[in-house]
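#struct-pred

JT: dropping the chains for the assembly here, can someone run the whole complex?
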Amino acid sequence: MYRYDEFDRTLVEERVAQFRDQVSRRLSGELSEDEFKPLRLMNGVYLQLHAYMLRVAIPYGTLSSRQMRRLAHVARRYDRGYGHFTTRQNIQYNWPSLAELPDLLMDLADVEMHAIQTSGNCIRNVTADHFAGAAADEIEDPRIYAEIVRQWSSLHPEFSFLPRKFKIAVTGAPSDRAAIAVHDIGLRMVRNDAGEIGFEVMVGGGQGRTPMIAKTVRAFLPKQYLLSYLEAILRVYNQFGRRDNMFKARIKILVHEIGIEKFSGLVEEEWEQVRDELVDLPPGELERIRAYFRPPPFDPLPDVDQGFEAAKTATPAFAAWARSNLFPHRQPGYAIVNLSLKPVGGVPGDVSAEQMDAIADLADQYSFGEIRVTHEQNLILPHVRQEDLFALWQALEAQGLATANIGLVSDIIACPGMDYCALATARSIPVAQRISTRFAETERAHDIGDLKIKISGCINSCGHHHVGHIGILGVDKKGEEFYQITLGGDASEHAAIGGLIGPAFASDEVVDAVETIVETYLANRINGEHFLDTYRRVGPSPFKEKLYAAH
Amino acid sequence: MPLIKNGHVTTDPWITIPDDMPVPANGQVIVSLERWRADGAELKARGEPVGVRLSSSQLAPEIANDLSHLALIAIEFPSFRDGRAYSTARLLRQRYGFRGELRAVGNVLRDQFMFMHRCGFDAFEINKSDDAAAWHKAMCEISVWYQTAVDVRASVVRRRHYGVAAE
Ligand code: SF4
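RK: done, full complex below.
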């Protein structure tokens, strides 16, 4: 993992001191709430329905056990004993008091964490593949480049007041687990014909009211030019992105309005000049950062652990968990373990302080002290020996973190919605809870197979409903909560925006509607197809018929 | 309105002439880009320093060919949210080599001084006198910068690898 040096540390501490000064100016009345707003937003502090909310960055979703313990401490000391992991690999605290925020941030700074640029019209926390450093299909660890981008984008003198927020995601593998196609910039590591490593650079993806899949501006960028190329893109956007209408200010609209060829031309022209301006890192800096992401000291192990195989045969519940919650590791004898933050009837992404402490201990015991946060609101222990899996499963069971549902119908992404968010038009959490309760039975969920349900409480789409296999969007109809359903969305390397299936459902109809969709899929599936395969093959008609036949 | 130039509060030797007012015979004047384009020859003929004021949507290339005639360029921040002027300033300095006064005007707030300074502004028309008083504090709140910009502050990379001092 990356460790701060004196420079990184000084910056974060100075930023806390600066924020402390801003908070005291607000508390003394020197700043009005209006004047304070942009300052707090630069540091991840939102005013929600009931209280201030703090969003803490977890750069590229990597956490150490020490950091996780500190998050638990923060939850206890400054909040109500829990935290909420979001779809952007961040954690949010819903109840801190403004006066205590500077102390809270200092406690985080102490473990090399911060809330810099987790909100505001700037380059946000950079996200990456949550299997980084463990996935078998990886070309290079994307976190090396994500860390480089994190540093470059922090307090950028030119790009801190962009037309709108700006999100960058990086993947080092052909399988896209970072949803790069729905980011302002998506970076996919690729090899060219000469075997050199670089990035395919995609621009202009996004969700919200105008969902778009990112387009490729450059098929191959030699990796040493990453920062100058980003600088060129950001400069074009900063100058030409629309500032007259907040809803048209994202880079996707610029790309859409002038076309990808023209946009690419502007970027390439700018890049020709920027390349010589000392933006790119010298090789020594690249190597310095790379060294922090060396693989942990794995033991040489056989491919398959016999004890693990025997335990699966002996304990069906363990076998079910292993089937859905484990992923193959590149290192023989190890596995990637998903901790489900989606217990039946629970709040997606919520973790209590006690659970955080337990997870930190388990990470130390079984995973070299490393933890990952996924954009699907789950956690990961990335490097676990197969022989330890049974003991780990038992420990996770005891903490309510072993629901065998990763990637399945009850592994639902949901934004905070009307329960917390001031922008919401409907609740999302209770809908997720009701759906997961309806599909509580493990066997049934496993039979249904891969199915991603994503729920947003308003068109801002923080719950990624546009790319849910089943997407659910809460809308307000004359003061009542209704839910629009889209089908066929996909956040993977085959990214697609879901299509609206028909009129919205009332709150008490929506769970039945989801079940109807699932039953229609099961009735139509052939040869063990996944939901998406069936949907793509048969199209929306059978679903429409079943959903609206009675109406 | 306090003016800070090179770190000090100073009196402003410049007068800004609205488009519908005649240009006086003497004195250093700041005019709009439109007026500069229309009356450039007369303005040069006066033999006095001339400055041009750009709106936030008037980008660096629009004035790049005229820099040798100009002693000052003022760039507007209609709102602190409009960050185009950062790119304009940086390009004027770095790409087009402008060495005259680069003045930030409009919604110029203390919490943005540092960003502006880093992008090449050396003069600041400040609305609030409290903000002007906070200038020096605002300039040293952050001492670590990852990026190379237009000012003399060395980037973290240069300090890490080449032992360069901060300033
Ligand atoms: S999607 Fe809407 S309701 Fe949900 S968190 Fe985002 S802004 Fe709030």
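JT: nice. Chain B has a mean pLDDT of 94. The beta strands of chain B are 3-5, 8-10, 14-16, 28-32, 50-54, 72-77, 101-106, 123-125.
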